[in-house]
Amino acid sequence: MASPTALFILALLCQEPNPFRLGSEQARHAADVASTATVGVAIAANTLSCGLQNDAKSGRWRCWAREACSVGLATGVMLAAKALVPRTRPDGSDRRSFFSGHSAQAGAAQGWNLTVGWTLAASTGLERMMADKHFPSDVAVGLLDGWGSVAACNRLIPHAPGVEKRRPTVFGPGGAK
């Protein structure tokens, strides 16, 4: 496993190419706006999902608490990393590229949901690269931060007694038949 120091040095030295960068400034701006909208959709979808999939009142509140914990933790870790690692964005606009907060928040909002959640989180990261705001490694670390925050908050805030924990599958609620 890589040490935090090695990740810091890698982020400073590695300016990998961005194969997803859009050509026109208008298209990059549209991708920037779309990435913010996608994060909003991810958070709203998970909030609605908590309300619909948990019958017990305490199950809903625990689900919402886990979501707030996940997004808050992912955001806190991201802000600390941006303060500690002054990596220049691909477009040169500032030195807050490492790592993608949009990707972290989208990953935290959807957690381990393999159908809609990962699609929204991955599209958010792609939009950030298309907008020329992040390198692929920034997006990858952001997604790992989001999903790691979900894992931590699921352990901190257990599911309500009698409420079955949702198992993520690629094939829907029942899994492969």
Total number of distinct structural domains: 1
Overall body shape: elongated
The secondary-structure class comes to mainly alpha
Number of helices: 6
Strands, total number: 0
Percent of residues in helices comes to: 55-70%
Let me know the largest β-sheet. Answer: none
The fraction of residues in strands falls at: under 5%
Distance between the termini: 37 Å
Radius of gyration: 17 Å
Q: Estimate the mean pLDDT confidence.
A: 79
Low-confidence stretches: 167-177
String of helices and strands: HHHHHH
Any chance you could write out the topology, listing elements then pairs?
Blueprint lengths: L3 H10 L11 H29 L3 H28 L16 H10 L5 H15 L5 H21 L21
Helix pairs in contact: 2-3, 2-4, 2-5, 3-4, 3-6, 4-5, 4-6, 5-6
